[in-house]
Amino acid sequence: xxxxxxxxxxxxxxxxxxxxxxxxxxxxxxxxxxxxxxxxxxxxxxxxxxxxxxxxxxxxxxxxxxxxxxxxxxxxxxxxxxxxxxxxxxxxxxxxxxxxxxxxxxxxxxxxxxxxxxxxxxxxxxxxxxxxxxxxxxxxxxxxxxxxxxxxxxxxxxxxxxxxxxxxxxxxxxxxxxxxxxxxxxxxxxxxxxxxxxxxxxxxxxxxxxxxxxxxxxxxxxxxxxxxxxxxxxx
Length: 235
Ligand code: IPE
Ligand code: IPE
Ligand code: MG
Hints:
44% of the residues lie in helices and 16% in strands. It contains 7 helices and 8 strands; from the N terminus they run βααβαβαβααββαββ. The protein has helices spanning 14-20, 25-46, 65-89, 104-117, 133-149, 160-164, 212-224; strands at residues 6-10, 50-57, 92-96, 124-131, 177-180, 199-202, 228-229, 232-233. α4 (104-117) links the parallel β3 and β4 (124-131). α1 (14-20) packs across α2 (25-46), α2 (25-46) runs parallel beside α3 (65-89) and α3 packs parallel to α4. The protein is globular, with a radius of gyration of 18 Å. The mean pLDDT is 97. The structure holds 3-methylbut-3-enyl trihydrogen diphosphate (IPE) (2 copies) and magnesium ion. Residues 10-12, 54-57, 60, 184, 186, 188 line the site of one 3-methylbut-3-enyl trihydrogen diphosphate.
């Protein structure tokens, strides 16, 4: 079975999962974060090289203040645990999104996480935090315009490949497979540039209950499809 090189996941349904158990939403977020560690290891053991997960969107700030606060607290502890698991499992961690809106201590922990794990050669693990696809494109355009003004880039040089290098995901191949858990079938502003030719897989399973077997099912489904690019079969 061909394993996709890059899998992107929209981790959705933490709140609904918790509610179905009569628990507060934050319980779902805590379980979701624990599950992420398990799935990271499973993904790598299955042969996946890149895993990119959506942890917090630019729109998620609109949630009630106490939920945002609880999420930020969870990210703080998750980031600390992640340094240990990254070193244990040889994962190279990168963050995508705009860190500037996060508290400075969280920004610093994320920086440490990237720095500590940068020479690891196992799973390439991307965490999307305060990430929005439109925001990423706008930030990239700003950088590009600045470079144009400074004479580092000329207008004629701008093409898709060079623009991609301005995105947060530079050096990371586009996802082959996108998984969204918990039944919703939309992108919610995730990787809108990078998903142009990605295969989509939607499952009703909420993220905290998503298992290795569910990941395997997604990969089997991916294998049963014939990928095409502009009407041409994949080589
Ligand atoms: C995903 O679960 C986690 C985040 C977006 C932070 P949700 O919190 O969106 O859970 P539901 O979709 O409301 O069930
Ligand atoms: C998308 O989930 C963002 C993350 C998983 C981090 P949401 O639950 O926030 O998205 P919508 O509101 O259902 O589109
Ligand atoms: Mg949701």
